[in-house]
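Narrative of accomplishments. A recurring question from our advisory board has been how the design workflow behaves on a single, concrete structure rather than in aggregate. To address it, we present the structure tokens for one chain from the evaluation set, followed by the sequence designed for it. No filtering or post-editing was applied between the two.
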């Protein structure tokens, strides 16, 4: 099932790129494997997927140990400061930096391990109460502050768009984030390398690609519905 779903998702990614004249190589699919077993991840791995997304530190760490070394693990969920230490050398990219205190904690742990951590700033474009992330109007200040942290490298922006019936409803959200991303690129801020725009999930990744996403995070569309056991 995973194999067939991946074929479908990949062909939709190609079609979305084609519609807007983008090179498909600019778009990387992250298979969001949270709650899913190693066997399903292995199936995706066997057809060439190397980027996987997890939203819990413990689960990411367990899968990191159990699965092939060349997997690129993406931390996409809200990260508590006391857990930074555990993921900092396992995740290739932390998408969910939603406070300056978290960025400072990443700086501290990365310095201790003598590495530079790649991160994205999470932006709550639609200003939903239930979601983490900076408001768009706060994001530039946050970027300038993070740029001062030598062991943190800001690579771009991430957003989780609202849950909607019709993915077209999220187009303005993606457009806004893309516009801000381009503005920030043009400022050429030292120690900021704006080249990554993480947006789009199962319900809306095609629209996100049309609006400039470079990373899409697809879970259900690849692995099926998630069941959260008690
Ligand atoms: C779970 C999750 C996804 C994947 O969601 P689907 O709708 O299953 O594709 C993407 N991004 C984040 C941050 C998530 O937590």
């Amino acid at each position: 099932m995973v194999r067939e779903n991946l074929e479908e998702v990949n062909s939709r990614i190609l079609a979305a790129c084609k519609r807007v004249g983008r090179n498909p190589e600019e778009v990387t699919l992250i298979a969001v494997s949270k709650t899913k077993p190693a066997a399903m991840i292995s199936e995706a791995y066997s057809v060439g997927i190397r980027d996987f997304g997890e939203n819990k530190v413990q689960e990411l760490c367990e899968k990191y140990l159990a699965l092939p070394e060349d997997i690129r693990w993406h931390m996409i969920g809200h990260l508590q400061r006391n857990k930074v230490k555990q993921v900092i050398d396992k995740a290739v990219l932390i998408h969910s930096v939603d406070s300056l205190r978290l960025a400072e904690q990443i700086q501290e742990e990365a310095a201790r391990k003598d590495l530079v951590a790649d991160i994205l700033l999470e932006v709550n474009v639609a200003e939903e109460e239930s979601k983490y992330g900076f408001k768009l109007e706060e994001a530039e200040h946050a970027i300038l502050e993070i740029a001062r942290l030598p062991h943190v490298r800001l690579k771009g922006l991430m957003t989780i768009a609202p849950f909607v019936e019709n993915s077209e409803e999220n187009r303005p959200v993606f457009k806004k984030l893309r516009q801000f991303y381009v503005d920030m690129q043009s400022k050429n801020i030292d120690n900021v390398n704006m080249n990554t725009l993480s947006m789009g999930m199962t319900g809306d990744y095609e629209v996100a690609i049309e609006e400039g996403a470079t990373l899409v995070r697809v879970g259900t569309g690849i692995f099926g519905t998630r069941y959260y056991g008690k």
